[in-house]
């Protein structure tokens, strides 16, 4: 009976150790991503000379229209299960013990199958209004320090070196080195 107790403890301990390793791996990947999320590009619709507030209002209108035309259609899906085979452990006396294998169920997740279509409908709506999608990188510190912080209220001309500064309230400043702004 003591052998059964040891075998059960090994199975439980092996499962816990593997779960712990997976969690540490996930955390090592998520922490840098969370830190970089504030450093990512500014993606928006752009039409030179348009006010930021009008661009935001028209973006919202197109998003609402796209949601009506391509409503959320969530589907619940599951990735395939994984089988973890048992292991053989041998002690110093040559006695070996085999642990049983186990199935780990697949991850359950939700997919909005209309998301791509909704994005396309939104982009077409904004294109009809004269906007095009852009993505600006964050400004380097040397660029930021050379320009007084001023929230962008009218979308300025862009150049190949254009970048942005994001403020705590969610507003931003678009900077094009060589141009006032």
Detailed description of the structure:
A hairpin with a 5-residue loop joins strand 4 and strand 5 (96-98). With 181 residues, the chain is of the alpha+beta class. Strands 1-8 form a two-stranded antiparallel sheet. A two-stranded antiparallel ribbon has the order 2-7. The chain is elongated and about 80 Å long. It contains four helices and ten strands. Helix 2 crosses helix 3. It has a domain at 78-106. Mean pLDDT is 84; it is low at 12-18 and 31-37. 40% of the residues lie in helices and 22% in strands.
Keyword list:
10 strands, elongated, 181 residues, alpha+beta, single chain, two-stranded antiparallel sheet, membrane, 40% helix
TL;DR?
It is built from 4 helices and 10 strands, in the order αβαββββββαβαββ. It has helices at about 1-35, 50-70, 115-130, 140-145, and strands at about 40-45, 75-80, 80-85, 90, 95-100, 100-105, 110, 130-135, 165, 170-175.
């Amino acid at each position: 009976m003591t052998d059964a107790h040891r075998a059960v403890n090994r199975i439980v301990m092996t499962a816990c150790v593997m779960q712990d390793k997976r969690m540490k791996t996930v955390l090592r990947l998520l922490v840098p991503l969370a830190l970089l999320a504030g450093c990512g590009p500014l993606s928006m619709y752009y039409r030179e000379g348009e006010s930021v507030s009008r661009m935001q209002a028209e973006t919202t209108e197109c998003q609402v229209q796209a949601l009506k035309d391509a409503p959320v259609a969530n589907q619940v899906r599951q990735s395939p299960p994984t089988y973890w085979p048992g292991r053989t452990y041998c002690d110093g006396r040559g006695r070996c013990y085999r642990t049983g294998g186990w199935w780990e169920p697949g991850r359950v997740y939700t997919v909005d199958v209309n998301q791509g279509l909704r994005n396309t409908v939104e982009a077409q709506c904004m294109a009809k209004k004269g906007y095009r999608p852009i993505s600006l990188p964050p400004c380097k510190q040397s660029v930021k320090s050379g320009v007084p912080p001023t929230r962008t209220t009218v979308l300025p001309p862009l150049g190949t070196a254009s970048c942005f500064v994001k403020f705590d309230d969610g507003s931003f400043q678009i900077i094009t080195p060589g141009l006032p702004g």
